[in-house]
C-alpha cells in the first residue's frame, strides 16, 4: 500500500506542470482536456518494481575493466546508475547487447564536475542538452549516461525535458513496456509497467495510453512495428486497440524527417515478418506519409514476400515492390533522402523486375552489368537483387559469375587513330555495348573491326546535336 502511494505521488509530480498553466481543468479546450485526463490515467504499475536478480553469462560478460571503474566512480560520489532500455530487454532474452545505455540520478552538471575532478575525458558534448554525458574511461571505452528525466513539453518530434531522480517517472516517458525496464549493476531488474511479462508473452504494448505516447513522438508508430518484428512470434497478432490508435495518428508522421523515418523503416524491412508488417502499415493508412503511393501495390508486395521473402532481400528491394513507376521512386527518394545506391537500386528494380526471356537466363543481367555507365560491381549487386526479387534459381550462379575483362584498351584505340580524352571514353563505351550484345565472345581484333561503324554512328550523333 505504501508503495502504491509513492507511485501516485510520483505521477502527480509528472503532471504538476499542467496545473501551473491552468487554474482548473475547465479552462482547457475539449481536446486539451482529453489529453490532460489521459495523462492522469496512471498505467498499471507493480507494487514492487524489483522483480528478479540477474546472474547470467550474458550479464557477466558486459563487465569490462572500464565499466567496473565507472561503477566505482558513481558509488564514490553517491549517484545511482543503472542500465536502461533495450540492453535490459536483450539481456532478459539471453542476448548480449551490442550497446549499453545508462541512466543515472546525477544531473549533467554533477556528472561533468565528477569526471573533471577525476580527470576523465568527455566526448560528444552535443548530447548534454538532452541530459547525456559520454565519458571515455581509460581512453578505451565510451559510455553514454543520461540523467533521469520527464518530458514536460512535446510537439510530436522533440521534447522539452526536466531532470528528476525518480526512476518510475523516467520509465513512464518511454515508448514501449519492454523498453522501460532498468537493470542495476548488482543484477537487480526493475520493471514498473510489466515489461517483463509482455516480453515473455512476446507482446508489444505502449507504456500507459498509446495515443499519448505516440503524440509525444510520432516516430513511435514505426518503432512499434519494428519491435513487433523483433519480438513477436506471429506475423499478424496485433492488438486491435493499438492499430486503431496508430490509424488515428498516422498523419503525424508527415512532419517527421525522412532520415528518421527511413532509419526505422529500414529496420522493419530487414527484420522478421517484413512483408506482413508492410501490409499492416499500408492498411493503417501510413503509406502517403512515408513516401509511398496513396494506394501502394500490395498485390506485388504479397507476391514478392511469398516467393522471395527467404532470399534476404535488401530493404529497398522489398520496399520497391510497393511502387508502380519510376516517378514513384523519385517521390520516395525525395521523402526518405535515400543514399545514392539505395535510390539507384529502387530505380533499377522497378525498371528491370519484369522477366527477361533468353536461352541463357543470366545473359540479360550480365549484359546489364557490362553495358552500365555506373560502377559494374554496383550494377551486379542490383541485378542480384532483381534475381532475388523474382526468386530466380540462378542467384548463386550469378553471384559466382566474374565480370569479364573488356579486351580493348586505350592504347589499341590510339594506334587506330582515335583521339584521347573524353571522346575515347565514349568510343570504349560504344564498343562495350557491341561486345555485350555479342555475349562477350568477340575478341579485341573483332571489336576493332567494328571501330569504323562505331565512329560513323558517333559522328552522326554529333551532327544531330
UniProtKB/TrEMBL annotation:
Pfam family, any one: PolyA_pol
Domain tRNA nucleotidyltransferase/poly(A) polymerase RNA and SrmB- binding: 239-290
Keyword tRNA processing attributed: yes
A biological process term (GO) from this entry: mitochondrial tRNA 3'-end processing
Taxonomic superkingdom: Eukaryota
CDD domains (UniProt xref): NT_ClassII-CCAase
Single Gene Ontology MF annotation: metal ion binding
UniProt feature coiled coil, ranges: none
Identification of the protein by name: Poly A polymerase head domain-containing protein
Organism name: Callosobruchus maculatus
Amino acid at each position: 500500500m505504501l508503495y502504491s502511494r509513492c507511485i501516485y505521488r510520483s505521477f502527480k509530480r509528472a503532471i504538476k506542470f499542467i496545473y501551473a498553466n491552468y487554474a482548473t481543468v475547465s479552462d482547457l479546450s475539449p481536446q486539451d482536456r482529453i489529453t490532460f485526463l489521459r495523462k492522469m490515467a496512471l498505467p498499471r504499475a507493480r507494487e514492487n518494481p524489483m522483480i528478479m536478480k540477474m546472474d547470467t553469462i550474458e550479464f557477466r560478460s558486459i563487465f569490462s575493466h572500464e565499466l567496473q571503474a565507472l561503477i566505482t566512480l558513481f558509488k564514490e560520489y553517491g549517484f545511482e546508475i543503472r542500465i536502461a532500455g533495450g540492453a535490459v530487454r536483450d539481456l532478459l532474452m539471453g542476448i548480449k547487447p551490442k550497446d549499453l545505455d545508462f541512466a543515472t540520478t546525477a544531473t549533467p552538471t554533477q556528472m561533468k564536475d565528477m569526471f573533471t575532478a577525476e580527470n576523465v575525458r568527455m566526448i560528444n558534448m552535443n548530447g548534454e542538452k538532452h541530459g547525456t554525458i559520454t565519458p571515455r574511461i581509460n581512453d578505451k571505452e565510451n559510455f553514454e549516461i543520461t540523467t533521469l528525466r520527464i518530458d514536460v513539453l512535446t510537439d510530436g518530434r522533440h521534447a522539452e525535458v526536466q531532470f528528476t531522480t525518480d526512476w518510475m517517472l523516467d520509465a513512464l516517458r518511454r515508448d514501449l513496456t519492454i523498453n522501460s525496464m532498468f537493470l542495476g549493476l548488482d543484477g537487480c531488474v526493475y520493471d514498473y509497467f510489466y515489461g517483463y511479462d509482455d516480453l515473455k508473452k512476446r507482446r508489444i504494448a505502449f507504456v500507459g495510453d498509446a495515443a499519448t505516447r505516440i503524440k509525444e513522438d510520432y516516430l513511435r508508430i514505426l518503432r512499434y512495428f519494428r519491435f513487433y518484428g523483433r519480438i513477436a512470434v506471429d506475423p499478424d497478432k496485433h492488438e486491435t486497440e493499438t492499430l486503431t490508435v496508430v490509424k488515428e495518428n498516422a498523419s503525424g508522421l508527415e512532419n517527421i524527417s525522412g532520415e528518421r523515418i527511413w532509419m526505422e523503416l529500414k529496420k522493419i524491412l530487414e527484420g522478421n515478418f517484413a512483408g506482413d508488417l508492410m501490409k499492416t502499415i499500408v492498411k493503417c493508412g501510413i503509406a502517403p506519409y512515408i513516401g509511398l503511393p496513396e494506394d501502394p501495390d500490395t498485390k506485388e508486395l504479397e507476391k514478392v514476400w511469398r516467393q522471395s521473402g527467404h532470399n534476404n532481400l535488401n530493404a529497398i528491394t522489398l520496399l520497391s515492390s510497393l511502387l508502380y513507376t519510376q516517378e514513384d521512386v523519385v517521390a520516395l527518394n525525395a521523402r526518405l533522402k535515400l543514399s545514392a545506391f539505395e535510390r539507384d537500386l529502387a530505380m533499377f528494380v522497378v525498371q528491370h523486375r519484369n522477366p527477361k526471356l533468353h536461352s541463357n537466363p543470366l545473359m540479360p543481367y550480365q549484359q546489364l552489368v557490362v553495358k552500365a555507365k555506373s560502377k559494374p560491381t554496383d550494377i551486379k549487386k542490383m541485378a542480384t537483387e532483381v534475381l532475388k526479387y523474382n526468386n530466380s534459381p540462378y542467384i548463386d550462379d550469378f553471384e559466382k559469375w566474374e565480370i569479364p575483362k573488356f579486351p580493348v584498351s586505350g592504347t589499341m584505340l590510339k594506334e587506330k587513330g582515335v583521339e584521347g580524352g573524353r571522346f575515347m571514353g565514349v568510343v570504349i563505351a560504344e564498343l562495350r555495348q557491341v561486345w555485350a550484345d555479342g555475349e562477350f565472345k568477340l575478341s579485341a581484333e573483332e571489336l576493332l573491326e567494328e571501330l569504323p561503324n562505331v565512329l560513323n554512328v558517333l559522328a552522326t550523333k554529333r551532327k544531330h546535336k
